[in-house]
TrEMBL record:
Principal location listed in the UniProt entry: cytoplasm
Domain of life according to the entry: Bacteria
Record keywords: Cytoplasm, Heme biosynthesis, Iron, Lyase, Metal-binding, Porphyrin biosynthesis
Keyword set includes Transport: no
Family the entry assigns: Belongs to the ferrochelatase family.
Described function: Catalyzes the ferrous insertion into protoporphyrin IX.
Enzyme class at the top of the EC tree: lyase
NCBIfam families reported in the protein's UniProt record: hemH (TIGR00109)
Protein name: Ferrochelatase
Gene field: hemH
Locations listed in the record: Cytoplasm
Pfam families the UniProt entry points to: Ferrochelatase
Pathway assigned to this chain's UniProt record: Porphyrin-containing compound metabolism; protoheme biosynthesis; protoheme from protoporphyrin-IX: step 1/1
The reaction(s) this protein catalyses: heme b + 2 H(+) = protoporphyrin IX + Fe(2+); Fe-coproporphyrin III + 2 H(+) = coproporphyrin III + Fe(2+)
Length: 358
């Protein structure tokens, strides 16, 4: 076994800090052909589907990958924009905004990139580029506010898989979760408040999070608890009482029981309980994507209205909003603690050198 070297390294190279933001990933195109490899990579991940491998191999290759790509391609086509998949576009915009803010403060000492857990740009290819460019301290921020083994844990696996073959590892910091980060909570509260100012309030505010199988919670995944914490903290900021909001779980996949209450079933039942208007917000999605635009914006709207609802509004994800970028910037800065000093010191050092050479 030979470990990969550092082909980009040269003596005297400036050490850099790398900030890598990651998200789930998305297909290359809204087509059956592009969906198949994307879903294959995603659903082959043992962190995502915790089922005995051999059994799952037959179900995935024999059934799911013959049926789902066509259906999902259709859904993706309905949200695709001229620039591409919404998830990719928003993540790109987030990286650009964070890069701009960091370079204004720290100059070119900090390199900001984004990568995707599944599909492109892959974590492996981006980490390779960053390390070859002199990054020696790497901060990874998965854009999942609530920790789940199926998302955050899996992102760490991808990094570890890359590192396992490398000779010179960078210093690594990995953000585990930020479900109760005050700036993130504030950004969510501000977004909801701004929505109220232009649309008025509804009978209920629904916090809808992507679900996971209930079994994962029972086996120790903290995701369910962290979702409830985010909802509670945002509700507290907004001064909402317990009967004014609900936390629900969406995007079920497969037959087993997932975290409850289910978003779709809740929305179908609410009108009969006298709840005629709802506003739905998805705090677990840092960027709008298929699961928010189509599933919440279109599909669930239909369930609620068909059941007798009168008003349904989806409050968009934080995307590249200024409040979100400020929150992520704060999170990055606090996780760079100790590293910043070096960056500041290097800048001060360079400024001094330039002064001396005049
Ligand atoms: C935000 C957190 C997410 C968790 C937790 C999560 C768990 C999870 N997801 C699946 C299966 C699918 N998810 C799909 C799309 C999708 N999932 C997330 C986020 C979380 N998933 C996002 C942001 C997206 C959208 C990606 C995009 O391109 O817009 C899909 C693919 C879409 C489809 O075919 O319907 C599947 C499949 C499981 C099984 C799971 C936990 C075990
Ligand atoms: Fe998902
Ligand atoms: Fe979905």
């Amino acid at each position: 076994m030979t470990f990969t070297g550092s082909p980009g390294f040269y003596h005297g190279q400036q050490d850099k800090i790398g900030v890598l933001i990651t998200n789930l990933g998305t297909p290359q195109a809204p087509t059956k052909q592009a969906l198949k490899p994307y879903l294959k990579q995603f659903l082959s991940d043992p962190r995502v589907v915790e089922v005995p491998r051999l059994l799952w191999w037959f179900i995935l290759n024999g059934i799911i990958l013959n049926v789902r790509p066509k259906r999902s391609a259709h859904a993706y086509a309905s949200v695709w924009s001229e620039q591409g998949s919404p998830l990719l576009v928003h993540t790109q915009n987030q990286a650009n905004a964070i890069r701009e803010k960091l370079s204004a403060r720290y100059g070119d000492n900090v390199q900001v990139e984004f990568a995707m857990r599944y599909g492109q740009p892959s974590i492996e290819s981006v980490v390779d580029r960053m390390l070859n460019n002199g990054v020696r301290k790497l901060l990874v921020l998965p854009l999942y506010p609530q920790y789940s083994a199926s998302t955050t844990g899996s992102t760490f696996d991808a990094l570890a898989q890359d590192f396992i073959a490398r000779r010179w590892l960078p210093e690594l910091r990995f953000v585990n979760q930020y479900c109760d980060n005050d700036d993130y909570i504030q950004a969510l509260a501000d977004k909801i408040q701004a929505h109220w100012e232009s649309h008025g309030r509804a009978d209920k505010l629904i916090f809808s999070y992507h679900g996971v199988p209930k079994r994962y919670l029972l086996n120790g995944d903290p995701y369910h608890c962290q979702c409830h914490k985010t909802s509670r903290l945002v509700a507290e900021k907004l001064g909402l009482s317990k009967d004014e909001y609900l936390t629900t779980f969406q995007s079920r996949f497969g037959r087993e029981e997932w975290l409850k209450p289910y978003t779709d079933e809740t929305l179908k039942a609410l009108p009969a309980q006298g709840v005629k208007s709802v506003q739905v917000v998805c705090p677990g999605f840092s960027a709008d994507c298929l699961e928010t635009i189509e599933e919440i914006g279109v599909e669930n709207r239909g369930y609620f209205m068909d059941a007798g609802g009168q008003r349904y509004e989806y409050i968009e994800a934080l995307n590249a909003d200024a409040g979100h970028i400020d929150a992520l910037f704060g999170l990055i800065e606090s996780n760079m603690h100790g590293w910043q000093v070096n960056a500041d010191a290097q800048r001060a050092h360079r400024a001094k050198q330039m002064g001396a050479s005049r």
